[in-house]
Design goal:
Blueprint (H helix, E strand, L loop, with lengths): L8 H4 L17 H20 L20 H5 L4 H18 L2 H23 L1 H10 L7 H9 L15 H15 L1 H21 L2 H6 L3 H13 L9 H16 L3 H30 L1 H5 L2 H29 L5 H29 L5 H23 L29 H4 L4
Helix pairs in contact: 2-4, 2-15, 2-16, 4-12, 5-8, 6-16, 8-12, 9-13, 11-12, 11-15, 13-15, 16-17
Length: 418
């Protein structure tokens, strides 16, 4: 079961290694490290929030579930940043090492956690969800036997659940690798002139033009073709587009200059669009009765997501440029955190469905146990070589390519002392 929400070394894998890869002296983009960590943090909080809404894509529902936080949940937009930063990381990695080495390392670093997660860590998610819905009898071992045999339940099993993100990044990286000359040519002859055009105009170009494809995806796939199977391609179209944009923009100073120029306006635009979408969520029942207003709200969402991406990129470039010990720790640990967090959330949430407790006790416990479980799990994992590959870490620390780096030559970026 995929949670419809829509960055691990930023390419999707956890990382330990030198902060200055390859010994070339190019400073690491700490702003993207911080942004990736924050995006995953928001996503983890979002998954906790799923237990307190009335949506049908929740694994379990708390006795305190209501529509109260649903408008705020609807404004969460972290996947654009995750896929964009993953694309940036892949660009630097594929330019740094031979293609064969890139494919071998990155495939292993993502495929092993994906298989392990699907066959081990994600099984409790399916089991607990079906038990909560009272669709199967108690008995985990019997269920696991059926799970491996593709038993017929309310959703397909085995299932990657929250690790669909890992599967998507793995797929997109393989597409980049398979057609690398095409993407490099497109970057040089199409993307670079486009980014120069963006940087040469007003802030409106940055805030409006790149959002157009994402608006078209909604209009064509989410709305017009939603009744056909092709409508299910809306999500992959969006995420791959953000990934490809990150790949093409990674080393382009015009793009980053354009982000700096548009940052102040992105603050106001994000507040405006967020307010409109919040009003739409609050009045959802009225929107459901007026198709034109509903479609208008749907078309505003990708515009809002792009504006938020510009905002957080600009924000990180200005205020998150310093390397700290916490950053070094979380840069490596956030991918194992991401793999571990969902089983912990769902198991603790399910326990509370069978035991009464005040809401603040329930929520504080879920938050605390999730954080403690992720920290403890990572501390165990990183010390045991056989466990490290199962969670996207190299068998030995420091034996892999570090996350994205850039050579920042513009004055605005140089001032950030990267």
């Amino acid at each position: 079961m995929k949670i419809v929400t829509p960055l691990m070394k930023s390419d999707g894998s956890g990382q330990e290694g030198d902060a200055r890869p390859g010994g070339q002296g190019a400073p690491r983009r700490h702003d993207l490290d911080w942004l990736r960590i924050c995006a995953f943090g928001v996503l983890i909080l979002y998954h906790i929030g799923l237990s307190y809404v009335t949506w049908d894509n929740a694994y379990v529902s708390s006795r305190y579930s209501s529509t109260f936080i649903e408008p705020a949940m609807g404004l969460v937009s972290s996947l654009a940043a995750l896929f964009f930063i993953s694309g940036v990381a892949v660009r630097f990695a594929v330019d740094k090492v031979p293609l064969r080495d890139f494919v071998q390392e990155r495939f292993t670093r993502l495929f092993v956690p994906l298989v392990f997660g699907s066959l081990v860590l994600c099984v409790p998610l399916s089991y607990i969800t079906l038990r909560f819905r009272d669709e199967i009898p108690a008995g985990y071992l019997v269920y696991y036997r059926d799970y491996l045999g593709f038993g017929q339940y309310a959703f397909s099993v085995p299932d990657a659940h929250h690790l669909w993100y890992v599967a998507a990044i793995l797929t997109y990286m393989m597409i980049i690798a398979a057609f690398l000359p095409v993407w490099r040519t497109a970057t040089k002859h199409l993307a670079e002139p486009f980014f120069a055009w963006l940087a040469g105009g007003g802030f409106w170009r940055v805030l409006l033009v790149p959002a157009i494809p994402f608006i078209l995806y909604v209009a064509a796939l989410d709305i017009y073709l939603s009744q056909f199977d092709v409508g299910s391609w809306a999500g992959p179209a969006r995420t791959f587009s953000y990934f490809l944009l990150g790949f093409m923009a990674a080393k382009n100073e015009d793009f980053w200059r354009a982000i700096d120029k548009a940052f102040p306006a992105a603050i106001g635009l994000s507040l405006l669009l967020g307010g409109l979408l919040l009003a739409a969520w609050i009045n959802q029942f009225e929107l459901d009765r007026d198709a034109r207003l509903l479609y208008a709200a749907l078309l505003l969402k990708p515009f809002y997501s792009w504006s938020i991406l510009v905002l957080v990129l600009g924000l990180a470039r200005r205020f998150a440029s310093r390397r700290t010990r916490l950053l070094a720790y979380l840069t490596t640990g956030i991918f194992p955190y991401y793999i571990l967090h969902m089983p912990i959330i769902v198991m603790v949430s399910y326990w509370f469905t069978m035991h009464e407790a005040p809401m603040w006790v329930e929520l504080a416990t879920i938050l605390g146990v999730t954080l403690f479980g992720c920290v403890l799990g990572y501390e165990i994992i990183r010390r045991i070589p056989v466990l490290r590959p199962l969670f996207g870490l190299p068998i030995r620390p420091g034996k892999s390519t570090a996350p994205p780096k850039t050579e920042n030559r513009s004055p605005a970026v140089a001032d950030l002392n990267r």
